[in-house]
Description:
Number of domains: 2
Number of helices: 8
Distance between the termini: 33 Å
Helix content: 25-40%
Shape: globular
Strand order of the largest sheet: 1-3-2-4-5-6-7
Largest sheet: 7 strands, mixed
Number of strands: 9
CATH superfamily of the largest domain: Alpha/Beta hydrolase fold, catalytic domain
Structural class: alpha/beta
CATH class of the largest domain: Alpha Beta
Amino acid sequence: xxxxxxxxxxxxxxxxxxxxxxxxxxxxxxxxxxxxxxxxxxxxxxxxxxxxxxxxxxxxxxxxxxxxxxxxxxxxxxxxxxxxxxxxxxxxxxxxxxxxxxxxxxxxxxxxxxxxxxxxxxxxxxxxxxxxxxxxxxxxxxxxxxxxxxxxxxxxxxxxxxxxxxxxxxxxxxxxxxxxxxxxxxxxxxxxxxxxxxxxxxxxxxxxxxxxxxxxxxxxxxxxxxxxxxxxxxxxxxxxxxxxxxxxxxxxxxxxxxxxxxxxxxxxxxxxxxxxxxxxx
Length: 281
């Protein structure tokens, strides 16, 4: 990596064909159900899937004090540029889920005339991070918040057990919401002045109008991580961006089927259907 660190990648078994980079959500990994599902689908389509773990999410700690966050596009950009350099004549696309989708859309909006990616898909994106943080602190969504914050705190303790952290961890147990954790930890480690600065600068909604890459955004109105207020308006979308909204689907769910023992994961069909035109066309 540019700063001397590294990220872990997982590849499908195909040795030829278009390449699709996949970026996971908060605390996700190659073992997340949506990750294994889409990688298997890419394999079936004859494409090469490459799954990038954000820093510290592969089971190995990141060697730097910094971690990863919703607006961190540096590693995404470096991976995409590296793939294009290694496979100069191969069609290249990207898929991002949740946090990874937010970062992917932000990358596309920051680099509107990039010619590395032929197409992109983003699923269950927290378009406005502040709205997402507040939603996760309400009702049944608190269950998701409690689980994710507990994982983040455990990771912080383990990583800094034998090394000095540049910020105090004395009150780590009191950081029980995303706003508290992001203010004390995420913003402090990544050069933001506070949680509001982090959320404002890292939210992808403001970048959508600048995207010049064929992009599909898949979102559900019943997403427990978000409210409809965060969903971008039509005038905030660039002509190359298509937003597909469904009434049901949850957060990175979109499970179909009439029999609960014979379900199918719609994303594993919809995402390749969209990408086929740009990768095989």
